[in-house]
Design a protein that fits this description.
Elements: H1 2-26, H2 35-46, H3 52-70, H4 73-96, H5 107-127, H6 135-146, H7 150-169, H8 171-195, E1 198-204, H9 208-218, E2 224-229, E3 236-244, H10 246-259, E4 264-270
Antiparallel strand pairs: 1-3, 1-4, 2-3
């Protein structure tokens, strides 16, 4: 239950960041940097009386159906929740801050800030097994079947939107949109990578039993034991290896510092762990 609530919170956080970045930085400057929000900005510029939030809701229905059929109901359900959250937040922002104007005269700075905020939000959402809806569903499908990183997969439909942006808003804003799409792709991949980075730890210590107990009982992780012989004294010792999150590793390091500050520890950073206790093998 706690894990599900955490996932819901993270999806809502990601949705808020996407809505915030779009409404305050991208939309006022007519920067359609891909995605369903970019398409909504384009249509809103042609039909300004139709709110961006309403446009986003309307365009997502067909893509929701495709996402549920192709990727599955869990992904579809999370995506529906996320995308309608974004649309709802956009409507709320439009009510609270009507007729928003660019915060500065520098479009490039606003583009960078908007994409940074939106990319962070999208990365959080994708990491929870959902998407922000719209063209991101197409990106997720590409990611599933062609095994391309999600950031690069999202590029494909987003480039189509940026081409449309160039034809509507002019080549200058079209170029800004292309730049935004490229930055967004990189940010999404890096955010997901940071969430899924783990530490592969190997420990040699005179307090091996206590360390093993701490890993299993306190950190709720497993460990593998190897036996190795040192070249200097020719003594055989246990080598404890385990895979931990960054937070778990810091706790383990603090514990080892207390029980055996002369322990020998090697640490390698790994970007993906599959199996029990981690991500499912797909």
């Amino acid at each position: 239950m706690e894990k599900k609530l955490k996932s819901v919170f993270l999806i809502l956080l990601g949705a808020f960041l996407v809505a915030f970045g779009t409404y305050f930085f991208l939309a006022p400057n007519e920067i359609a940097a891909g995605g369903i929000s970019g398409a909504a900005i384009i249509i809103n510029s042609i039909f300004p009386k139709i709110p961006i939030g309403i446009l986003m809701m309307a365009m997502e229905i067909v893509l929701f159906t495709i996402g549920v059929i192709v990727i599955g109901p869990i992904f579809g359900g999370k995506t529906i929740f996320c995308s309608f959250s974004i649309s709802g937040m956009m409507l709320i922002l439009e009510e609270l801050f009507p007729k928003i104007r660019p915060v500065s005269n520098d479009i490039l700075v606003q583009l960078i800030f908007g994409i940074l905020v939106c990319g962070l939000g999208m990365g959080i959402v994708f990491n929870q097994g959902a998407s922000t809806g719209g063209t991101d569903i197409i990106g997720k499908i590409i990611n599933k079947y062609f095994k391309i990183s999600i950031g690069k997969s999202v590029l494909v439909p987003d480039i189509v939107v940026t081409i449309a942006a160039a034809s509507i808003f002019g080549i200058d804003k079209g170029m800004y949109a292309v730049l935004g799409v490229l930055i967004n792709s990189t940010i999404i991949d890096n955010v997901i990578k940071s969430f899924n980075t783990y530490k592969h730890v190997a420990i040699i210590s005179n307090e091996a039993e206590g360390i093993k107990s701490y890993i299993v009982e306190k950190l709720k992780r497993s460990a593998t034991i190897y036996y190795a012989k040192g070249a200097y004294k020719n003594h055989e010792k246990e080598v404890i290896t385990t895979v931990l999150s960054r937070k778990e590793f810091l706790k383990l390091k603090d514990y080892i510092k207390i029980v055996d500050d002369k322990a020998f520890i090697t640490v390698n950073e790994i970007n993906e762990v599959l199996g029990e206790g981690f991500q499912n093998i797909i």
